[in-house]
């Protein structure tokens, strides 16, 4: 004979099957709402996902604590959504956005990060119980980092946190790894924050013209280029043929400038000022007899590097090395070096 508890579980499961179309609609609406909230946020995310609890999973849950639920609407995780991000501090940013996007059931939500259990790293998600307007059912939103998510998946796969007792030696080793991963999670966020501070300092130094105080690296070089130190030269070169200037990334010139003994942004600035007139003369010889009406924004810096190499005795070999750095090592670079050398050989800077 079926007892009252079994009958109640059976009724909840039947209610679940009848509610499935509504749960599917809720899952899709939650996903759409999360994408609207996050797609243009500028945050680096691993995943935005949602699922409906399977009937067998629900049956297992009801078998353990079915009497806790008067109706299906009392179960808060029939629809579950998860946002996985790279950085711990982004979890809080997403949480703040979710609080504005959804109605939060604070009594049933939990921030497991504040529990500080020794073995809880992979379960340190922020769990919000939320409601969307127009739906009677609530849903669970989990926010966690990529490392937390990976740890939770590995633990689940190995039976950790299950009812199966695991030898203490394995638990000890897993807890040690959990501590290491938690430190890594925190350190990634700390490094990102310090890099952001560094970039701001560099931008301030560049704006204030203190270029000798800034070592030449990728971030510093990009900040320097944003100030437009090559704009005047490029416009002057474009005027030769009334050409249009097409923007081209200049990141690959970083290693070239370092090979020319530039160590700071001040060195780069002085290199440009020293050779920009000769770079223009070289461009006149390159473009004067052509009808090119589109030129690359790299032409000014490339010609400055060419003039620097030739005026310091680098010759064709130096030019070939330049083009190898810019284009990758290949046979046409030797031909390009020879052509460039011929274009420049009668210019004043070759005779100085």
What series of H and E elements makes up the topology?
A: HEHEHEEEEHHHHEHHEHHHH
Give the CATH superfamily of the largest domain.
Answer: Beta Polymerase, domain 2
How many H/I helical runs? 13
**Helix proportion:** 55-70%
CATH class of the largest domain: Alpha Beta
What are the salient characteristics of this protein?
Beta Polymerase, domain 2, alpha/beta, 352 residues, six-stranded mixed sheet, two-stranded parallel ribbon, 2 domains
Can you characterise this structure?
- The chain has 352 residues and is of the alpha/beta class.
- It has 2 domains: 4-183, Beta Polymerase, domain 2, CATH 3.30.460; 214-351, no CATH class.
- The protein is 58% helix and 11% strand.
- It contains 13 helices and 8 strands.
- The strands form 2 sheets. Strands 1, 2, 3, 4, 5 and 6 form a 6-stranded mixed beta sheet that branches. Strands 7-8 form a two-stranded parallel sheet.
- The longest helix is centred in the middle third of the chain and has 40 residues, at 168-207.
- The N and C termini lie far apart (107 Å).
- The mean pLDDT is 89.
Detail the topology: elements first, then pairings.
Elements: H1 4-38, E1 45-52, H2 55-65, E2 79-85, H3 88-101, E3 103-104, E4 110-111, E5 126-131, E6 139-145, H4 146-158, H5 168-207, H6 218-226, H7 231-238, E7 244-246, H8 253-259, H9 265-287, E8 294-296, H10 299-311, H11 315-327, H12 332-344, H13 348-351
Parallel strand pairs: 2-6, 7-8
Antiparallel strand pairs: 1-2, 3-5, 4-5, 5-6
